[in-house]
Amino acid sequence: MHSRKYIGYSQFLVGAALAAMLPAQLLAQSGDTGESETEPADPVIIVTGEGLAETPATPAYATQIIERDRLVSTGSGRIEDALSSVAGFQQFRRSDSRSANPSAQGVTLRALGGNASSRAAVLLDGVPMADPFFGFIPFTAIAPERLASARVTRGGGSGPFGAGALAGTIELTSADAATLGRFGGHAYVNDRGETEAAAHLAGDLGEGFGVVSGRWDRGKGFFTTPEADRVSATARARFDSYSLQARGVAPLTDTVELQARVLVYDDRRTLRFDGADSSSSGQDASLRLIGRGDWQFDALAYLQARNFTNVVISSTRFVPVLDQRNTPSTGIGGKFEIRPPVGDRKVLRIGTDYRSSDGELYEVALSAFTGNVTERRNAGGTNTDLGVFVEDDLLLGPLTLTAGARLDRYTIRNGFFAATDANGVTLREFAYDDRAGWEESFRGGFVFEAGGGFRLRGAAYTGLRLPTLNELYRPFVVFPVTTNANAALDNERLEGFEAGIDFRPDETVDLSLTAFDNRVVGAIANVTLDRVTRQRQNIDRIRARGIEGSAGLGFGALRFDGSIAYTDAEARQTGADFDGNRPAQTPQWAGSATLSYRFGQRGLLAATLRHVGKQFEDDLETDILPAATTIDAFAELPLTRMVSLVLRGENLTDEDVVTRNQGGSIDYAAPRTVWAGIKLGM
Hints:
Elements: H1 2-29, E1 63-67, H2 68-71, H3 79-83, E2 90-91, E3 107-108, E4 120-124, E5 127-128, E6 147-154, E7 168-174, H4 177-180, E8 183-190, E9 195-205, E10 208-219, E11 239-251, E12 256-270, E13 277-291, E14 296-313, E15 320-326, E16 329-339, E17 346-366, E18 373-396, E19 399-420, E20 426-431, E21 435-451, E22 454-465, H5 469-473, E23 476-478, E24 481-484, E25 492-506, E26 509-521, E27 524-530, E28 533-538, E29 541-555, E30 558-572, E31 589-599, E32 603-612, E33 615-616, E34 624-625, E35 628-638, E36 643-650, E37 658-662, E38 665-668, E39 673-681
Parallel strand pairs: 4-7, 24-28
Antiparallel strand pairs: 1-6, 2-3, 4-5, 6-7, 8-9, 8-39, 9-10, 10-11, 11-12, 12-13, 13-14, 14-15, 14-16, 15-17, 16-17, 17-18, 18-19, 19-20, 19-21, 21-22, 22-25, 23-24, 25-26, 26-29, 27-28, 29-30, 30-31, 31-32, 32-35, 33-34, 35-36, 36-39, 37-38
């Protein structure tokens, strides 16, 4: 039943978004009426393809912007690698999207970790990208070459889609046709014979533009298992993924533009053993209206159809023991924000947003000895959140004040779990009580322009995150450890404050320092029950205190960009064995430094040094993930006006970066990898 609904949504959303581009184009072209030249000149129409401008108080919160040049010049060519240039950005594991299980790719900031769900909101052109069921981010669907910039805001928020932005917000903005050029692409190959290919076409839609783009990554992968531990069933981390996107932007009037986007992706990986295959796929569509008149507004609607599969292989008998064969989910949502004209000294934002996440899992447990079905499981539910928000910025000369409030009505409903034997006889069946409630959030801050390039800022905030369907209803296995779901999980609550100073005397110097104290009350963590069993539980709190610094220095064609974070984080639960320990998978120190040199119009040489401190695999601090330091490099050498030679290097010192350590069973991240290829563009 759910699968038919999933297919129907997929067909509907793709058709609806593509159809929406046509009337926009016709409206944009309707200005030619054949009237005489004495008619008044039409107003100049400027189409940006972006959202509304940031408000004056945006710098009150710790924000770092990654421009396009840095997004597309990493050693790996992956968006998560580019985002790692912001110290404190973290996935649950150190692997990237070629060798991690997709469900482990939740995103957080400021060491507010503990499990694999995202505690930071990731928005692509205003649309939340987190998987409706799991909460992970489908990084393979987000090609960095399609983007204009990424803005990373650390700390909680109560604005649009504020429910879920517990640790911060990552806002990705797509590049327009002028930035991309009429056509372009690249084809690279590495020293293992793996390939990365991408291309785009851009053209006019009346007075707007349209872009169609695609990317395909595939390869045999590397061995994540140390050589001494490999067996005949050990497999390379094979990967094969594609992402296709169509985006159109067209003016409806001289102040209103329509933006439409369709995204289709598929991602298949193998991890550790032959047959340990996973897949993640999706079809997303969104429509957005931006008004830039006296009454500015941002209206957005989106629909997401996602799926996930995974096969668990026994690490002792090397046969399938669990087939998570189907996990269809649907995300539906939207927002409306309006900024009324209230004078030059104020910016007022009023709005509402809505998100619904609906999904089910279908999985089959298998005997490791006979291969027979021992249990069939089906579980799922629906989470919704309806929020209203208001935020006001007040400009008082060099001082800008901001205050915002948000009220969320959430529901957790239709939750169930059912297990049958191979013959369909019910073994266990639970129908969980529906829950609903109201949660309020607040934030406020200031920015003071002190003169001489100095700026002082401070902020305080609260926030909210609902448990995901995955956390509530789906157990998972990283053999031999089973982590059980918990349908009784409560919401997480954030309380935090920060203060900082920025120094920007001119365009060549950008220095920033922030001190923060954040606390997640009722944090959801994977709590160890015994040697092979964990359960998701709300613990008393996770507290993270620390300092973040960033630097951008330009010396003509030479530039330095760096970021560093020190975080003292601890998980607290009275009477628990882990009370006072660091949350799982969270380092104390993280830093990144990039030195780049530009020559000509497109020539670029860049090297990046990245360090991640020691982490612990689990909440009991039993197994250690040692600190790791890597060096990446990138070179773009123009050959002609339209063709460049690109050379890339990952982990050039061949550091052993441990991503998993469960009782001595270890996985590694990517070894030294060298890429070469051709880039086209105009």
